Amino acid sequence: PNAMQWGQIATATAYHGKGIARWLGALSIVHAFENFGASEVYTGIREGNAPSKGLCEGLGVHDTGFEIVAAINPDAFGGGHLTK
Q1: Is 90 exceeded by the pLDDT of residue 6?
Q2: What's the pLDDT tens digit per position in 43-64?
Q3: 3 vs 33: CA distance, rounded Å
Q4: Among 84, 83, 82, 28, which residue's Cα sits nearest to residue 55?
Q5: Integer Rg of the chain from CA
Q6: CB neighbours (10 Å) of residue 41?
Q7: What is the pLDDT of residues 72-84, one digit of tens each?
Q8: In the chain, N or C terminus with fewer CB closer than 10 Å?
């Protein structure tokens, strides 16, 4: 299968519960399928983040038990912030 990483989706607190993250997640999955031939989507969820887990599971992105490991050069982000 052709898998694609789904990055982080976040909405401002004032917009929580309005379905924006679900809409963006669904849109990104469809886009990955239509434009890149992705047949699978994966992401990482911080342990204890029940809202993100619920969002992903609602979109058919389920826990596989695999771990995601990334190495990122912070200089490549031009002063941006990285989350973990």
Answers
A1: no
A2: 888 888 898 889 989 998 888 8
A3: 10
A4: 28
A5: 14
A6: 18
A7: 777 776 666 555 4
A8: C
